[in-house]
Amino acid sequence: MLIGVILPVILAVIMFSLGLGLRAADFWRIATQPRAFGVGAFNQLIVVPAVAFGVVTLFALPAEMALGVMILAACPGGVLSNSASRYAGGNVPLSISLTAVISLVSTITLPIIVALSAAHFLGTDAPAISVSALGVQVFVLSAVPVGLGMALTRFFPGLVATAGPWISRLAFWLFLAMILAALINSWDAFSRSFWALGPALIVMNAALLLIGLLSGRLARLNEKDITTIAIESGTQNGSLGITVGLLILGASSGLPDTTLPAVIYSITAWFLTMPFVLWRRRLPARAVVAA
């Protein structure tokens, strides 16, 4: 099916645009802010999948949809989380470092979580999932384009300075095109499952934003760091979730149900994330007035 080829290509372009904004220093910056990075990494790698598992259990979602939620939870943040952190007045370098490192680590953790979740939710109906093969696919579709983007920035900074903003805009519109294509190809399934998945995903998003705030405060981080930790905890890479869901079950007759959570999440997440971003953006102004 054509969409089975197009979606991975779109994901690769999106990840390439992410790489254009990364530097090698973003990977090493964690040494200068280990506590903030540690909280963010723990949330993304441990807390997010745990909360997702609790949500799918609480809402008793159908097996394939539950697997799709776990796939989404295993995905790192992405370009949108970096943009949201910037607009909210968060610690953008911390956001970029988390995205860079967790994107690399997820090439290992995502296939493991997916394989375990498939076995748990699908049981004997679970497809044969090779953790190593899926890891290679995720690496090729995410880490390799990021690396190419970083290399282009390193060796051709002038070109990237000129073309980078246009590529970022292209990536954004391609992301929207991916969501639209997914909706068109699975509209019946989307309309049928929206009211089951939508509330579950909103609850998950709200819980993760709250956990991000609380964990940042418990770690005694500053407000910029707390804002970023919350956004990174509550924002997953929907484009990667859609693509992995497609890779697991294929697209012989439309997109499988494993892609629906990522599609719906890409819509519902902004119901809470945007108000949260606007609230955090106003915090410095209120602090100045209060002073």
From TrEMBL:
Species for this entry? Paradevosia tibetensis
Its record classes its membrane topology as:
Multi-pass membrane protein
Q: Where does the record place it?
A: Membrane
Keywords (A to Z) from UniProt: Membrane, Transmembrane, Transmembrane helix
Question: What is the superkingdom listed in this entry's lineage?
Answer: Bacteria
Q: Look up the record and report any one GO term of the cellular component aspect.
A: membrane
Q: Give TM regions.
A: none
KW Membrane (keyword) present: yes
This protein is called what? Answer: Bile acid:sodium symporter family protein
Stored Gene3D superfamilies:
1.20.1530.20
Keyword Transmembrane helix recorded? yes
